[in-house]
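User: Good morning. I'm curious how S-adenosylmethionine would be positioned relative to this chain. Could you predict the structure with it bound?
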Amino acid sequence: MRAEEITTGREGSAEHWRLVADGFSQKALEYEAFWTDHPNFTRMRERVQAHFDGLLAPASRILELNAGTGIDALRLARRGHRVHATDLAPGMIAAIEAKMRTAGLGDRLSVQRCSYLDLELVSVGPFDAVFSNFGGLNCVEDLGRVTRLLKKLLVPGGLVTWVIMPPICPWEWLALRRGDWGTAVRRLRPGGVIAHVGGAHFRTYYFTPRQVIGSFGSEFRPIKLEGLSLFAPPGDRKEFAHRHPHWYRTLVRLDDWLCTLPPFRNWGDFFILSLRYRRT
Ligand SMILES: C[S@@+](CC[C@H](N)C(=O)[O-])C[C@H]1O[C@@H](n2cnc3c(N)ncnc32)[C@H](O)[C@@H]1O
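Assistant: Good morning! Here's the predicted structure, ligand included:
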Protein backbone atom coordinates (compact mmCIF):
# COMPACT_ATOMS: atom_id res chain seq x y z
CA MET A 1 0.00 0.00 0.00
CA ARG A 2 1.52 3.32 -1.05
CA ALA A 3 0.63 6.90 -0.24
CA GLU A 4 -0.55 9.18 -3.02
CA GLU A 5 -2.57 12.35 -3.24
CA ILE A 6 -5.81 11.44 -4.97
CA THR A 7 -9.46 11.89 -4.24
CA THR A 8 -11.40 8.84 -3.10
CA GLY A 9 -14.59 7.95 -1.22
CA ARG A 10 -14.72 9.15 2.38
CA GLU A 11 -14.55 6.36 4.95
CA GLY A 12 -18.08 5.57 5.96
CA SER A 13 -19.39 6.38 2.48
CA ALA A 14 -20.80 3.65 0.25
CA GLU A 15 -18.16 4.62 -2.32
CA HIS A 16 -15.29 3.92 0.11
CA TRP A 17 -16.56 0.42 0.84
CA ARG A 18 -17.31 -0.26 -2.84
CA LEU A 19 -13.68 0.55 -3.63
CA VAL A 20 -12.44 -1.67 -0.76
CA ALA A 21 -14.61 -4.58 -1.93
CA ASP A 22 -13.64 -4.14 -5.60
CA GLY A 23 -9.93 -3.78 -4.83
CA PHE A 24 -9.72 -6.86 -2.65
CA SER A 25 -11.94 -8.90 -5.00
CA GLN A 26 -9.52 -8.10 -7.79
CA LYS A 27 -6.60 -8.97 -5.53
CA ALA A 28 -8.10 -12.33 -4.51
CA LEU A 29 -6.86 -13.99 -7.71
CA GLU A 30 -3.21 -13.20 -7.05
CA TYR A 31 -3.32 -12.87 -3.24
CA GLU A 32 -1.84 -16.22 -2.31
CA ALA A 33 0.70 -16.25 -5.14
CA PHE A 34 2.29 -13.13 -3.65
CA TRP A 35 2.67 -14.72 -0.22
CA THR A 36 4.12 -17.97 -1.63
CA ASP A 37 7.90 -18.21 -1.25
CA HIS A 38 7.81 -15.16 1.02
CA PRO A 39 9.85 -16.20 4.10
CA ASN A 40 9.10 -13.08 6.13
CA PHE A 41 5.38 -13.18 5.53
CA THR A 42 5.28 -16.89 6.32
CA ARG A 43 7.13 -16.12 9.54
CA MET A 44 4.66 -13.32 10.39
CA ARG A 45 1.64 -15.56 9.86
CA GLU A 46 3.24 -18.31 11.96
CA ARG A 47 3.81 -15.80 14.76
CA VAL A 48 0.14 -14.76 14.64
CA GLN A 49 -0.92 -18.39 14.64
CA ALA A 50 1.29 -19.21 17.65
CA HIS A 51 -0.10 -16.20 19.55
CA PHE A 52 -3.73 -17.15 18.81
CA ASP A 53 -3.27 -20.92 19.33
CA GLY A 54 -1.72 -20.22 22.73
CA LEU A 55 -4.91 -18.48 23.93
CA LEU A 56 -7.62 -20.57 22.26
CA ALA A 57 -9.45 -23.34 24.09
CA PRO A 58 -9.81 -26.66 22.18
CA ALA A 59 -12.82 -26.89 19.84
CA SER A 60 -13.55 -23.15 20.01
CA ARG A 61 -16.26 -21.43 17.97
CA ILE A 62 -14.45 -18.66 16.07
CA LEU A 63 -15.80 -15.70 14.11
CA GLU A 64 -13.19 -14.52 11.61
CA LEU A 65 -13.51 -10.94 10.35
CA ASN A 66 -11.94 -9.97 7.00
CA ALA A 67 -10.95 -13.59 6.39
CA GLY A 68 -9.49 -12.96 2.90
CA THR A 69 -8.93 -16.18 0.97
CA GLY A 70 -9.45 -18.25 4.13
CA ILE A 71 -5.86 -19.28 4.87
CA ASP A 72 -6.34 -18.99 8.64
CA ALA A 73 -9.96 -20.19 8.60
CA LEU A 74 -9.05 -23.49 6.94
CA ARG A 75 -6.10 -24.05 9.22
CA LEU A 76 -8.18 -23.39 12.35
CA ALA A 77 -10.97 -25.67 11.14
CA ARG A 78 -8.42 -28.42 10.43
CA ARG A 79 -7.23 -28.05 14.04
CA GLY A 80 -10.72 -28.93 15.28
CA HIS A 81 -12.21 -25.47 15.80
CA ARG A 82 -15.50 -24.38 14.24
CA VAL A 83 -14.94 -21.27 12.11
CA HIS A 84 -17.39 -18.79 10.58
CA ALA A 85 -15.35 -16.84 8.00
CA THR A 86 -16.63 -13.42 6.89
CA ASP A 87 -15.33 -10.85 4.43
CA LEU A 88 -16.63 -7.86 2.50
CA ALA A 89 -15.12 -8.69 -0.90
CA PRO A 90 -17.09 -11.12 -3.11
CA GLY A 91 -13.83 -12.28 -4.73
CA MET A 92 -12.41 -13.29 -1.35
CA ILE A 93 -15.63 -15.10 -0.40
CA ALA A 94 -15.55 -16.99 -3.72
CA ALA A 95 -11.96 -18.06 -2.98
CA ILE A 96 -12.96 -19.48 0.43
CA GLU A 97 -16.00 -21.24 -1.06
CA ALA A 98 -13.81 -22.85 -3.74
CA LYS A 99 -11.50 -24.24 -1.04
CA MET A 100 -14.43 -25.42 1.08
CA ARG A 101 -15.70 -27.59 -1.76
CA THR A 102 -12.62 -29.82 -1.60
CA ALA A 103 -11.48 -29.39 2.02
CA GLY A 104 -13.88 -31.93 3.52
CA LEU A 105 -14.28 -29.91 6.70
CA GLY A 106 -18.04 -30.40 6.96
CA ASP A 107 -19.72 -27.99 9.36
CA ARG A 108 -16.42 -26.96 10.95
CA LEU A 109 -16.17 -24.16 8.34
CA SER A 110 -18.91 -21.81 7.17
CA VAL A 111 -18.66 -18.61 5.15
CA GLN A 112 -20.73 -15.45 4.85
CA ARG A 113 -20.25 -12.28 2.88
CA CYS A 114 -20.56 -9.69 5.63
CA SER A 115 -18.83 -6.43 6.52
CA TYR A 116 -17.44 -6.10 10.02
CA LEU A 117 -19.67 -3.02 10.24
CA ASP A 118 -22.77 -5.23 9.85
CA LEU A 119 -22.05 -7.96 12.38
CA GLU A 120 -25.66 -7.94 13.55
CA LEU A 121 -26.26 -9.85 10.27
CA VAL A 122 -23.97 -12.73 11.25
CA SER A 123 -26.10 -15.80 10.82
CA VAL A 124 -24.57 -18.05 13.52
CA GLY A 125 -23.08 -17.68 17.02
CA PRO A 126 -22.31 -17.06 19.83
CA PHE A 127 -18.53 -17.32 19.58
CA ASP A 128 -15.64 -18.11 21.91
CA ALA A 129 -13.28 -15.92 19.88
CA VAL A 130 -13.29 -13.15 17.26
CA PHE A 131 -10.20 -13.09 15.05
CA SER A 132 -8.99 -10.57 12.48
CA ASN A 133 -5.65 -10.94 10.71
CA PHE A 134 -3.36 -8.68 8.70
CA GLY A 135 -4.89 -5.26 8.67
CA GLY A 136 -8.42 -5.73 7.34
CA LEU A 137 -9.52 -3.48 10.21
CA ASN A 138 -7.21 -0.70 9.01
CA CYS A 139 -9.87 0.10 6.37
CA VAL A 140 -12.23 1.63 8.97
CA GLU A 141 -11.61 5.00 10.59
CA ASP A 142 -13.64 4.39 13.76
CA LEU A 143 -12.97 0.96 15.29
CA GLY A 144 -15.75 1.61 17.83
CA ARG A 145 -18.20 0.89 15.00
CA VAL A 146 -16.95 -2.72 15.08
CA THR A 147 -16.21 -3.23 18.78
CA ARG A 148 -19.67 -2.17 19.92
CA LEU A 149 -21.14 -5.06 17.92
CA LEU A 150 -18.97 -7.72 19.55
CA LYS A 151 -20.64 -7.99 22.94
CA LYS A 152 -23.69 -9.67 21.45
CA LEU A 153 -21.53 -12.18 19.59
CA LEU A 154 -19.03 -13.23 22.26
CA VAL A 155 -19.60 -15.57 25.18
CA PRO A 156 -18.57 -14.31 28.63
CA GLY A 157 -14.80 -14.64 28.91
CA GLY A 158 -14.55 -14.68 25.10
CA LEU A 159 -11.28 -13.89 23.31
CA VAL A 160 -10.53 -11.21 20.72
CA THR A 161 -7.28 -11.40 18.72
CA TRP A 162 -6.72 -8.66 16.14
CA VAL A 163 -3.68 -7.99 13.96
CA ILE A 164 -3.52 -4.33 13.03
CA MET A 165 -1.06 -1.89 11.42
CA PRO A 166 0.30 0.75 13.83
CA PRO A 167 1.58 4.25 12.94
CA ILE A 168 5.20 3.44 13.88
CA CYS A 169 7.12 0.92 11.79
CA PRO A 170 10.86 1.06 12.62
CA TRP A 171 11.80 -0.50 9.26
CA GLU A 172 10.11 2.39 7.43
CA TRP A 173 12.00 4.89 9.60
CA LEU A 174 15.21 3.46 8.13
CA ALA A 175 14.19 5.29 4.92
CA LEU A 176 15.49 8.43 6.65
CA ARG A 177 19.03 7.18 5.89
CA ARG A 178 18.36 8.15 2.28
CA GLY A 179 16.40 11.28 3.28
CA ASP A 180 13.06 9.69 2.37
CA TRP A 181 10.74 11.41 4.84
CA GLY A 182 7.67 10.42 2.80
CA THR A 183 8.12 6.71 3.59
CA ALA A 184 9.33 7.27 7.15
CA VAL A 185 6.31 9.24 8.33
CA ARG A 186 3.63 8.09 5.87
CA ARG A 187 1.63 6.23 8.53
CA LEU A 188 1.48 9.37 10.68
CA ARG A 189 -0.42 11.44 8.10
CA PRO A 190 -3.54 12.90 9.65
CA GLY A 191 -6.66 11.52 7.98
CA GLY A 192 -5.06 8.24 6.88
CA VAL A 193 -3.15 7.09 3.83
CA ILE A 194 -4.42 6.19 0.36
CA ALA A 195 -3.90 2.49 -0.35
CA HIS A 196 -3.67 1.00 -3.86
CA VAL A 197 -5.20 -2.46 -3.93
CA GLY A 198 -6.19 -4.32 -7.09
CA GLY A 199 -6.50 -1.07 -9.08
CA ALA A 200 -8.71 0.64 -6.46
CA HIS A 201 -7.67 3.55 -4.27
CA PHE A 202 -9.10 3.96 -0.81
CA ARG A 203 -8.14 5.44 2.53
CA THR A 204 -6.59 3.33 5.31
CA TYR A 205 -5.99 4.27 8.95
CA TYR A 206 -3.26 3.33 11.42
CA PHE A 207 -3.95 2.69 15.10
CA THR A 208 -1.81 2.43 18.22
CA PRO A 209 -2.58 -0.49 20.57
CA ARG A 210 -3.80 2.10 23.09
CA GLN A 211 -6.35 3.41 20.55
CA VAL A 212 -7.56 -0.12 19.79
CA ILE A 213 -7.87 -1.01 23.48
CA GLY A 214 -9.70 2.29 24.07
CA SER A 215 -12.20 1.43 21.31
CA PHE A 216 -13.27 -1.69 23.26
CA GLY A 217 -14.12 0.04 26.54
CA SER A 218 -13.78 -1.26 30.07
CA GLU A 219 -15.58 -4.57 29.50
CA PHE A 220 -12.56 -5.89 27.60
CA ARG A 221 -9.22 -6.56 29.31
CA PRO A 222 -6.01 -6.58 27.22
CA ILE A 223 -4.08 -9.79 27.90
CA LYS A 224 -1.29 -9.99 25.31
CA LEU A 225 0.45 -7.62 22.90
CA GLU A 226 3.38 -8.15 20.55
CA GLY A 227 4.92 -6.23 17.66
CA LEU A 228 5.32 -7.99 14.31
CA SER A 229 8.16 -7.17 11.91
CA LEU A 230 9.71 -4.21 13.67
CA PHE A 231 13.22 -4.27 12.23
CA ALA A 232 12.61 -7.12 9.77
CA PRO A 233 11.08 -5.76 6.54
CA PRO A 234 7.32 -5.31 6.16
CA GLY A 235 5.16 -7.71 4.16
CA ASP A 236 5.48 -5.81 0.88
CA ARG A 237 9.32 -6.34 0.81
CA LYS A 238 9.16 -9.89 -0.51
CA GLU A 239 12.63 -9.90 -2.05
CA PHE A 240 14.64 -8.84 1.02
CA ALA A 241 14.97 -12.26 2.72
CA HIS A 242 16.21 -13.82 -0.54
CA ARG A 243 18.63 -11.04 -1.42
CA HIS A 244 20.05 -10.45 2.05
CA PRO A 245 19.69 -13.75 3.98
CA HIS A 246 22.28 -12.85 6.60
CA TRP A 247 20.73 -9.43 7.33
CA TYR A 248 17.28 -10.95 7.30
CA ARG A 249 18.19 -13.55 9.94
CA THR A 250 19.84 -10.88 12.11
CA LEU A 251 16.81 -8.57 11.93
CA VAL A 252 14.43 -11.43 12.71
CA ARG A 253 16.52 -12.30 15.79
CA LEU A 254 16.30 -8.66 16.90
CA ASP A 255 12.52 -8.73 16.37
CA ASP A 256 12.12 -11.97 18.30
CA TRP A 257 14.12 -10.52 21.18
CA LEU A 258 12.28 -7.19 21.45
CA CYS A 259 8.74 -7.78 20.18
CA THR A 260 7.08 -8.38 23.56
CA LEU A 261 8.89 -5.59 25.44
CA PRO A 262 7.62 -2.02 25.82
CA PRO A 263 7.81 0.20 23.81
CA PHE A 264 8.72 -2.18 20.93
CA ARG A 265 5.55 -4.27 21.26
CA ASN A 266 3.54 -1.21 20.15
CA TRP A 267 5.46 -0.92 16.88
CA GLY A 268 6.02 -2.90 13.68
CA ASP A 269 4.45 -3.58 10.32
CA PHE A 270 1.62 -4.98 12.48
CA PHE A 271 0.93 -5.67 16.15
CA ILE A 272 -0.99 -8.65 17.56
CA LEU A 273 -3.35 -7.69 20.36
CA SER A 274 -5.55 -10.03 22.41
CA LEU A 275 -8.29 -9.03 24.82
CA ARG A 276 -10.69 -10.95 27.02
CA TYR A 277 -14.39 -10.06 27.35
CA ARG A 278 -14.77 -9.56 31.11
CA ARG A 279 -18.45 -10.31 31.51
CA THR A 280 -18.95 -13.55 33.44
C1 LIG B 1 -4.96 -7.73 3.73
S1 LIG B 1 -6.40 -8.70 3.55
C2 LIG B 1 -6.20 -9.84 4.89
C3 LIG B 1 -6.94 -11.12 4.63
C4 LIG B 1 -6.75 -12.25 5.63
N1 LIG B 1 -7.18 -11.86 6.96
C5 LIG B 1 -5.34 -12.77 5.66
O1 LIG B 1 -4.75 -12.84 6.73
O2 LIG B 1 -4.81 -13.17 4.62
C6 LIG B 1 -7.67 -7.63 4.14
C7 LIG B 1 -9.08 -8.19 4.01
O3 LIG B 1 -9.98 -7.30 4.67
C8 LIG B 1 -11.20 -7.36 3.98
N2 LIG B 1 -12.04 -6.21 4.39
C9 LIG B 1 -11.81 -4.90 4.23
N3 LIG B 1 -12.82 -4.17 4.72
C10 LIG B 1 -13.71 -5.04 5.23
C11 LIG B 1 -14.97 -4.91 5.89
N4 LIG B 1 -15.54 -3.70 6.09
N5 LIG B 1 -15.61 -6.01 6.31
C12 LIG B 1 -15.07 -7.25 6.10
N6 LIG B 1 -13.90 -7.45 5.46
C13 LIG B 1 -13.22 -6.36 5.03
C14 LIG B 1 -10.78 -7.36 2.52
O4 LIG B 1 -11.79 -7.77 1.64
C15 LIG B 1 -9.59 -8.31 2.58
O5 LIG B 1 -10.00 -9.64 2.33
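Residues 20, 24, 65-68, 71-72, 87-89, 92, 115-117, 133-136, 139 surround S-adenosylmethionine (CB under 6 Å). The radius of gyration is 18 Å.
Let me know if you'd like a different ligand tried.
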